[in-house]
Amino acid sequence: MVRTSLGASSLSLVAYYFNATTASIVLAGCACAVELLNSLIHKGGLLVKDVDPKALVVHLPSVSTDNIIQLKGVINFRGLAGIPTRDGLRIKKQVLYRSAHLARIKEEDIDTLIALNIGTVVDLRSKREKTKLPDDLTKISARDSTLTGVEDKLTLWASMIQLRDVVNLLLFNRHRIQPSLGEYYIDIVDNMVVELFGQFLVLLSDKDNLACVVHCTAGKDRTGIFVALLLTLLNVEEEVIISEYSLTNLDFDRSFRGFCKGSSLKGYGIPDAQMKGSMVAEPQWMRNLLQHMKDKYGSVEGYVLNECGVDPEVLAKVRANLLEKPE
Question: Which part of the chain is the Tyrosine specific protein phosphatases domain (predicted)?
């Protein structure tokens, strides 16, 4: 059994999950209470199944790994060029990219990024995330476009569930993290990004904002949702959208190393490997989200027009700016 060294702050967090009587015992540092917590935390990982990120990649001929751009200081950076639509069009080159945060751009990355002609960077991170890891866009001569309200609406764990539930998941039910993240995707589109996604489309409707990079911290969940909704609006096949989303798993190792380096979970005796499921791009999450969009809104276009309040003219401009006929 992994033994934890629980300090006062850790005990306070755990005690929050329990009732007041148990909390008083725990905070008193009672040896039997700490032993109980050790046992519960250990048992909380017994049902966690190992995940092979590479096995989650959905390979399709129409989704090229050539769009992946290897950068030294940025993970999960790729373009969307060449992705086909149902009506015979494709996404233009150098108009849209997706990524993890851009806070650690290396000198050897600068020429590559400048060559992409990036005009605007849309940062989906919270204010706290940006303060901790601010993008440095001066190196690549790009404009930062912060969507109004993003600081309050898109913090992963804070917006996902209440603190009590976070403690429950992370410490005592780690096998439930993956299903909870899938539910979080639906919560995002229903409750968090209605206005934000509309702003994103308005930005893309102006050619002067292209090429555009959209990113969050890991470039997986928030970014993946925005890109999937956009591709649906562009009339891309659902399996193609899911395939594109799943490419995130190809850079899993670097992403997971970064997560483990900054994680405070070791203080609770939680092995890094038990958190792998929260860092993958699970295709079923995206399938469920796209089905939800059809079930609740009729279509993503219905969501955009009726919930986000975007004009049809804006959608027409977005499609004109991003799509072309194959040569």
Answer: 183-254
Residue 147 pLDDT class (50, 70, 90 cuts)? confident
How many angstroms separate the CA atoms of 187 and 193, rounded? 9
Average pLDDT over every residue of 283-301: 97
**Rounded Cα–Cα distance for residues 11 and 123 (Å):** 35
The helix, strand and coil proportions of the chain, stated in percent and rounded to the nearest 5, come to: 60, 5, 35
Q: Does domain 53-324 have CATH number 3.10.180.10?
A: no
Measured distance CA(99)–CA(102) in Å, rounded: 8
Instruction: List residues bridging with 99 in a β-sheet.
Output: 215
User: Residue 74 pLDDT > 70, yes or no?
Assistant: yes
Q: Tell me the CA distances in angstroms from 122 to 101, 205, 227, 281, one per residue in order.
A: 10, 14, 12, 21
CA distance 195 to 201: 10
DSSP code at position 92: P
Question: What is the pLDDT at residue 77?
Answer: 98
| Contact predicate 246/240, CB 8 Å | no
State both tokens at 134: 């601010």
Instruction: State pLDDT tens for residues 107-145.
Output: 999 999 999 999 999 999 888 888 889 988 888 888 887
Domain boundaries, the chain: 1-43, 53-324
| Alpha-carbon gap, residue 15 to 158, rounded angstroms | 19
* Residue 73 CB neighbours (<10 A): 15
Phi first, then psi: what are they for 139, rounded to 5°? -70, -25
Q: Mean pLDDT over residues 151-180, rounded? A: 54
